[in-house]
Amino acid sequence: MEDFEMALLRERAAKAIVEFPTVDQAAASVGVDAPTLVSWLDDPAFLSLVERAARNLPVLTSVRLIQSAHDAVVVLADIMRDAGNPASARVAAADQLLDRAATVNIGAAVGQLQQQATSLDRISSMTNILAITFYKAQKYRLGLFPEYEPIYAFLQSHYPDVFLPIEDSRRCKPSPCPEYLTRAVAEAGKGDT
User: Fold this and answer.
1) How many domains in the chain?
2) What is the structure's pLDDT at 129?
3) Taking all residues of the chain, what is their mean pLDDT, rounded to a whole number?
4) Pair (100, 149) in one structural domain
5) 53 and 137 co-located in one domain
6) In terms of residue numbers, what domain contains 174?
7) H/E/C letters for each residue in the chain?
8) Tens digit of pLDDT for each residue in 31-42?
9) Is residue 44 domain-shared with residue 127, that is, in the same domain?
10) Quick one: 70 and 13 in the same domain?
């Protein structure tokens, strides 16, 4: 057997070790004998493949569940529609279908809300960082905190219309600042000593 074919076989065997409850079943599923598979378990490279397969198992399980979900819905729908089934079975199938549909809709809505909350958290964090950076630049511009000079220099190089060269800016009034930044700068300043 060529090296490439052997590598593929070992990768399939590593997945089988994770998926099947016994070594015998795993070995049979990939076409090797159990003692060979047991001997591979002594090889660190093979164990690495097994660990990777174990990490991927939740994803594989989710994919299989999703693939099976359609079949399950079809079975429930068939039970519900079959007039030959007892009414209790038809009602139970309909109830299961409605319950699953509601769960899917709620899950999708929760997922969308979580994405929106994450986006808002990122925007809030970025606004706070900008406010603190603006605050420190203003402190430096006013002749306070010389250690903030790199911040001011960076801002001045990227936003020359807003952040004047330091010799010019000390002769000017502070530039107007949007209200939300003014509030954020004030909040940031409460913690500054």
Assistant:
1) 2
2) 75
3) 78
4) no
5) no
6) 122-190
7) CCHHHHHHHHHHHHHHHHHCCCHHHHHHHHCCCHHHHHHHCCCHHHHHHHHHHHHHHHHHHHHHHHHHHHHHHHHHHHHHHCCCCCHHHHHHHHHHHHHHHHHHHHHHHHHHHHHHHHHHHHHHHHHHHHHHHHHHHHHHHCCCCHHHHHHHHHHHHHCCCCCCCHHHHCCCCCCCCCHHHHHHHHHHHHCCC
8) 999 999 999 999
9) no
10) yes
Residue pLDDT, tens place only, 75-106: 988 998 999 999 999 889 888 887 777 676 67
For residues 185 and 103, state if they share a domain.
no
- Residue, of 168 and 5, whose pLDDT is higher: 5
- Assess whether 90 and 107 both reside in one domain: yes
CB distance 123 to 179 below 8 Å: no
Beta-carbon contacts of residue 23 (< 8 Å; ≥ 6 apart): 17, 34, 37, 38
Question: Are residues 87 and 14 part of one domain?
Answer: yes
The answer on pLDDT for 172 being more than 60 is no
Residue at 141: amino acid letter:
R
